[in-house]
Amino acid sequence: MAADAEVARTARWRWALAGAVAAGIAVSGALAGYADAHPGDGAPLFTLWFGSMVAAKTALATAAAALVVVQLASAVAMYRGGPGWVAWVHRWSGVAAFGLALPVAFACVWSLGFEDRSTRVLVHSVLGCAFFGVFTVKMLALRVRGLPGWVLPVLGGLVVALLGVVWATSGLWYLLTVGP
């Protein structure tokens, strides 16, 4: 009987995780599909107080990348049994990073479209869409009961790595090429 219950619990989290992965694939595919089907005209959607939309996107993306470093440090602290406030820092730095990433993604998808004119831009386009898909999987997996202990750190690591590469292929490139 106990073995049957364990099999049922394992099956539940596996199906739930599979559903989360399917949702993540759908998000990534929808972003890529829309951006590819509706190539942007490059018209700026926002500039904030910056000289161009790309400069504004770079600033927002750089702030989001900095908050992802806070995410990584707080996740490590939580897994090492840090104080209770670390979970609060982790959650809210993630909310802020995601909030900063949304207008960047919107400008990319709406105004610039899915691009493949260079390897750097293609990698940025593909991994930018993948970032939001993996982020979706991680957020949904947070609510799945019975997940093995390795699942959330792997998903979190993928989110950090993807955002890092997406930022490096755009924000960092812009800062090094054009300047702040």
UniProtKB/TrEMBL annotation:
InterPro entries registered for this protein in UniProt: DUF6529
One Pfam family per UniProt: DUF6529
Annotated coiled-coil segments of the chain: none
Keywords linked to the UniProt accession: Membrane, Transmembrane, Transmembrane helix
Membrane-crossing residue ranges in chain numbering: 15-34, 46-72, 92-114, 121-144, 150-176
Name of the protein this chain belongs to: DUF998 domain-containing protein
Organism: Xylanimonas protaetiae
